[in-house]
From TrEMBL:
Signal peptide: none annotated. It holds the Pfam family BacA. It comes from Sphingobium fuliginis (strain ATCC 27551). Bacitracin is thought to be involved in the inhibition of peptidoglycan synthesis by sequestering undecaprenyl diphosphate, thereby reducing the pool of lipid carrier available. The keyword RNA-binding does not apply. It is an enzyme of class 3 (hydrolase). This is Undecaprenyl-diphosphatase. It comes from the Bacteria. It is a multi-pass membrane protein. The gene is uppP. HAMAP family: Undec_diphosphatase. The chain crosses the membrane at residues 40-63, 83-102, 114-133, 145-164, 184-205, 217-240, 252-268.
Length: 269
């Protein structure tokens, strides 16, 4: 197989594996670009758009939830409206701040050392939060109070620093604000839909013309999309079961080890 398509498949696997785990998919894609020695800027838009494959995995796996909410909205059920409200409210801070700081965020995407340090600091933070958080009062997305949803939305913005992890920030933020583990994970999955759709739309508006003329075309994006979707379907099922039983500490230790290994490797280059 052509080396180009092997790279596409590898990046699709990395995206599918890491998008919903609290380990930072963007950070892993940046480190993968350094490890493989290719031009990260050439693949930057590809890395953003294939996230939609992972997002589609959430829609497919939780279609019953979305169907129930949709029917509830039509019937004007308060629970369904609170579910929708909470998703939209948590999304707004990332939309506003992301638009305002888009150019600065793009500059950070070429900083692998930032990723390495963010992995380590994030791992330590997860361990600390796991020890501190004992009480979980909210056991459904619709049950999370408005003010706490706003807090989760602003905490998600920390993931604009590559290596922080969008899912990790939202899950840990939700835990500190009293949300039960499984609900925190699922809220993070659902919140990824408007967030990643917005990021991909912005990237296409700014750089969509480069797809047909660049080294990474629509065929590569389609392949990466399919690979990330398949891998994400498998990962989401496994992840929810794992955190319900064992919490997030395994991911924290992985982040710390991966971050230290990345720093050592980058210092020897």
């Amino acid at each position: 197989m052509d080396l180009h398509y092997l790279t596409v498949i590898l990046l699709g696997i990395v995206e599918g594996l890491t998008e919903f785990l609290p380990v930072s998919s963007t950070g892993h894609l940046i480190l993968a670009s350094e490890l493989l020695g290719y031009d990260a800027s050439t693949w930057a838009m590809f890395n953003v758009i294939i996230q939609l494959g992972a997002i589609l995995a959430v829609v497919v796996l939780y279609w019953r939830t979305f169907w129930a909410v949709g029917m509830g909205l039509l019937r004007k059920e308060p629970t369904s409206w609170r579910f929708l409200r909470n998703l939209l409210v948590a999304f707004i801070p990332a939309a506003v701040i992301g638009l305002a700081l888009h150019n600065h965020i793009e500059e950070l995407l070429g900083a692998p050392r930032v990723v390495a340090w963010a992995l380590i600091v994030g791992g330590v933070a997860i361990l600390a939060i796991e020890r501190m958080v004992k009480e979980n009062r909210f056991h459904g997305i619709a049950d999370i109070p408005f003010v706490r949803v706003v807090g989760i939305g602003f905490i998600q913005c920390l993931a604009m620093i590559p290596g922080v992890s969008r899912s990790g920030a939202t899950i840990m933020g939700a835990l500190t604000l009293g949300v039960e583990r499984r609900t925190a994970a699922e809220f993070s999955f659902f919140l990824a839909i408007p967030t990643m759709l917005g990021a991909s739309a912005l990237e296409l508006l700014k750089n969509g013309d480069k797809i047909t003329s660049g080294a990474v075309g629509w065929d590569s994006i389609a392949l990466g999309f399919v690979v990330s979707f398949i891998v994400a379907v498998l990962v989401i099922k496994w992840f929810v079961g794992l955190v319900s039983r064992h919490g997030f500490a395994p991911f924290a230790w992985y982040r710390i080890v991966a971050g230290i290994a990345a720093l050592l490797w980058l210092s020897m280059r």
